[in-house]
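thread from #wetlab-drylab

HS: before we spend reagent money on co-crystallization trials with guanosine-5'-diphosphate, can we at least see a predicted complex? here's what I'd submit
DV: go for it
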Amino acid sequence: MDNIRNFSIIAHIDHGKSTLADRIIQECGAVSDRELTKQMMDTMDIEQERGITIKAQSVRLDYVKDGKHYILNLIDTPGHVDFSYEVSKSLASSDGALLIVDAAQGVEAQTIANVYMAMENNLTLIPVINKIDLPAAEPERVAEEIETTIGIDATDAVMISAKTGVGIRELIDAIVDRIPAPVGDPSATTKAIIYDSWFDSYQGAMALVRVFDGEIKTGQMVKLMHNNENHQVLELLYPHPLRRQKTQSIKSGEIGIVILGVKEVGSIRVGDTITDARNPAKEPVGEYAPAKPFVFAGIYPIDTDEFESVRDALDKLKLNDSSLSYEPETSIALGFGFRVGFLGMLHMEVVKERLEREFNLDLIATAPSVVYKVYKTDGTMVEVQNPSELPEPQNIERIEEPYVRATVIVPTDYLGNVITLLTAKRGMQEKMEYLNETRVMLIYVMPMNEIVVDFYDKLKSTSKGYASFDYDPIEFRQGDLVKLDVRVAGDVVDALSVIVPRSSAESRGRALVTNMKEIVPRQLFEVAIQASIGNRVIARETVKSMGKNVTAKCYGGDISRKRKLLDKQKEGKKRMKAIGKVQLPQEAFMSVLKMD
Ligand code: GDP
Ligand code: MG
C-alpha cells in the first residue's frame, strides 16, 4: 500500500486541470503519443465541445521514481460550482490534492471554495502554479496571493506549464514525495466508497470505488449499505481513458470499477458504502448525504407520447448523475412532464442537453425557480418549487425565500460596476477585502432567486469577464413576493408564471411582454401578450398577424429556395409547443428570466 498515491486535481474553471491530467497521463506512459488526444478525461461530447469537465474521471497510472514502482490514481474533478457534489465525492476518495492556480489569473472564487472542501477532507495540498509560459504570468505574485487568501504555505509551490510540459516531472515527483500513502486495514472486512457511477448499455451499472479496508474480489457477494441490497461482483476493472484492465481484486487503498450486474438503476448511489454481504462492516465510510437541489424546472416532451421515454431517460441519467432528482407533474399548457431539481443553472443546461442528445428526445424546459417556503394562514407550510402552485394571496401569511453567501473576486477597475449589480440584485455587503492593489474579494448575502435570473451573464458582461463568482446556500428569509402570470391570447400559461419581489413586479412584467413579443412568431391571427398579478394586467404587447404566406416572396421560379424555406419552417416547428391555438418556441419559456 505504501506505493499508492491517490490524488485529485482541483482548481477554478479554465485554470488547466484537464490539460494537466493529459500531461500526467502522457508522462506516465499510459497512452502513446499517437493515442494522445486533447483532454482525454473529458469523454462526453458535450464536455469536449464546451471545454468543461462535467463528470469526474479517474485513471490508474504506473510511475517509477528512484527505481521504485508507484501506482498513481488520478481523479480529474469538475471545477464549476454546480458540480461541487462530484468534487466532494472525489475528494473523499483522495489522500491529497493538486491545487492548480493560473499564473496569469491568480486565485479565483472557486479556487477558494475548492480549498475549503479539500481541507474538510483533511487532504494534503500541493499548490501548483500553471501556465507559467504565458507572457502575462506572474508566478511569484500568485504564490503570495495563495498565502494571503488561503493561508497555506506556497513557498514550495510547483511551477508548471501543462501546455509545454515544463515542471511536470517535478510535479509527479512531488506527488510521490508529499502526498501520503493511503491508510486502511487490508485484513479487515470490505469497506469501499462509491464516488462515481454510470450506466453502460452492455454491462449495466458501473461503480467507481475507493477501497478503504479489506478488498473487493470477483465473485464476492457484497452489500450496498444505504439500501441493504446484496449483489455479486461480476467483474473488476482498473480505470483508464482507453483501455480498462481486468483485475481479480481491488485492494485496500486502491481505486477501481465494480460491475454488479445491477439493472435497477436506482440501486447504485454516489456516496454509498460497499461492504461484504456475509460479514458487513459496522459503519459506512462517512455519512451518505444525497446532493440537495436548489433550482427546479419543468421538463416536458414536445411530443406528449414521449412521457415514458423521458422517465426512462431520467432514470438512466440519474445513475450517471446522482444529484438529479425529479417527479412527475402536469401543466395545463404543456401536458405531462417532470419537475426536475438541479444544483444550479449550468447543471440544468447540461442535463437538458444530455437528455436530448443521449436519449434522442425533444424537450421544453420551463424557466427555473428556487424553492419557496410558504406559510399559510391556516398554520401549515408548503414548499413551492413551481411558481404556478403558489397558494392564493389571501391564504398566504408569509413567504420565505432561500439566501446565499456569494464570493466575488474582481479587479479594482470593475469594482464599482460589480457593487452596483450586487446591490440591484438585493445583495447586502458582508465584507470587502483587497487581495492586493489590483484585486478585491467581496462577500455578499443575497436571495438565490436573483442568481437564477440572469446574474451570471450580467456579472460577466459588467466586468468584461474578469469577475469570478461562487456561492453557498445559507438560510431562508422572509420576502415580499408576488406571482407574475403571463397570458397568451387571453389565457394564463401556467408554465410561464414566475415569483418576483413586489417592488420589481411592474418592471419585470413590462420587460417580459416586450421580450415575448420578439420571440413569439407571428400567427395567422393577432396575439395579445399580457403580464398580470392576480386579475390585474400590468403590461401588454400585441404580436401582429402574419398576413401573407412567407413563401410568396420567392417569386415562382426558385423551387429549391422555396423548399429550403419550408424545411426551415418545419425545423422551427419541431421546437414549438402548441399553447391553445398559439405556437410557442422554447425561448418563450426562458424569456421570463430576461430583465432587459
Ligand atoms: P480546466 O477547466 O481547469 O479543466 O482547464 P483546461 O485544462 O480545460 O484548460 C483551459 C484552457 O487553458 C485551455 O484552453 C488550455 O489549452 C489552456 N491551458 C492549460 N494549461 C495551460 C498552460 O500551461 N499554458 C497555457 N498557455 N495555456 C494552458
Ligand atoms: Mg476540465
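DV: Residues 52-56, 551-556 have pLDDT under 50 and may be disordered.
HS: ok that's useful, forwarding to the group
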